[in-house]
Design a protein that fits this description.
With 307 residues, the chain is an alpha+beta fold. The protein folds into two domains: 184 residues, no CATH class; 96 residues, no CATH class. 23% of the residues lie in helices and 21% in strands. Strands 1, 2, 3, 4, 5, 6, 7, 8 and 9 form a nine-stranded mixed β-sheet that branches. Strands 10, 11, 12, 13, 14 and 15 form a six-stranded mixed β-sheet that branches. The chain is globular and about 60 Å long. The relative contact order is 0.18. The N terminus is likely disordered.
Length: 307
């Protein structure tokens, strides 16, 4: 059986709690002594029993390349895997921007395969920032970190100067995010929301299957950003946190649109109308426990103070 990190189709494209086995083949051989990672017992290095973030791998789109409303959905990565000290993971789905965030718990064998595919035992020597290949300017970045060490491939991990191990790490992100997402369960967390007043008018609006604003605790017009200002003013970290039953209502609405219950969902947002019938664009995503007050993961957005 093919190992999880060797899927050729993922090359440089980027990449509740129930024990899972992903069927990634035979157990990996143990790491060499002294490397810090024992593939037969990876809990010794990652799963320290705490609820803190221990390992992150994410595919990051530069903000200027992301549609204004989708910035709240991609601010911590176009897709990613986060692992805490309890061996619990959070994974987003590479194939669908609107898919829910999912979570699960890694068993020892599966975590061993994951760490092997990430060459985790070599991070001391591999850490650093790698440049893009010549002529590459429109490819996402890949970021790997455990809080003390960070490996960044700017514009993908395809440059000749990038070590083979780091290239393999880049190839591993998409298949691992996909497999963990497929094995997980929806998080049911708070959500981060952006609302933009639509620039569409007249007959075009009539063609859209619209819904009313389902949130009781936050007014639509309290957070709506004018369409004319959206592209220039919306940045990563500008989403509004919505909690409890309001978050549940938004998730239900998302599920309805993704199932085409409001007609064929061909637009890039959820269409909301106010009491006067004016159209608004709704964007939102689920959250992980590792985000700050602005909804951002510090390992990705804070100034790096490590090597």
């Amino acid at each position: 059986m093919t190992r999880c990190g060797s899927h050729a189709a993922a090359a440089i494209l980027w990449a509740t709690a129930v024990p899972l086995g992903l069927g990634c083949g035979a157990a990996p051989e143990a790491r060499d002594a002294g490397t810090g990672v024992d593939a037969a017992n990876p809990a010794q290095t990652v799963c320290d029993g705490t609820a803190t973030l221990r390992v992150m791998m994410t595919v990051v789109n530069p903000e200027y390349r992301v549609l204004y409303g989708h910035r709240v959905m991609r601010e911590n990565g176009a897709w990613y895997v986060l692992i805490d000290g309890r061996c619990r993971y959070w994974a987003s789905y590479p194939e669908e921007l609107w898919a829910e965030l999912r979570t699960g718990t890694l068993d020892g064998e599966t975590l061993g395969w994951l760490l092997a595919d990430l060459h985790y035992d070599r991070w001391d020597e591999l850490q650093g920032v790698y440049p893009p290949a010549p002529g590459v300017s429109d490819v996402s970045d890949a970021v790997f970190s455990d809080g003390e060490r960070r490996i960044v491939c700017v514009g993908g991990c395809g440059a000749d100067v990038v070590p083979d191990e780091v290239k393999a790490m880049g190839n591993a992100v998409t298949p691992w995010a996909t497999r963990l997402w497929e094995s997980g369960t929806p998080v049911g967390s708070d959500v981060r929301v952006l609302v933009v007043g639509s620039g569409m008018e007249g007959e075009a609006v009539d063609l859209i299957q619209k819904s009313s604003w389902p949130v009781a605790g936050v007014g639509l017009h309290e957070i709506a950003i004018p369409y004319s200002e959206a592209e220039a003013t919306i940045s990563y970290g500008d989403g509004v946190r919505v909690t409890g039953t309001d978050a549940d209502a938004l998730r239900r609405l998302r599920s309805e649109y993704m199932a085409d219950e409001h007609g064929v969902w061909w637009y890039r947002y959820i269409p909301i109308v106010d009491d006067a019938g004016a159209l608004h664009e709704l964007y939102f995503r689920d959250t992980s426990p590792f985000e700050n007050d602005r909804g951002l993961i510090g390992w990705l957005h804070d100034p790096w103070t490590g090597p």
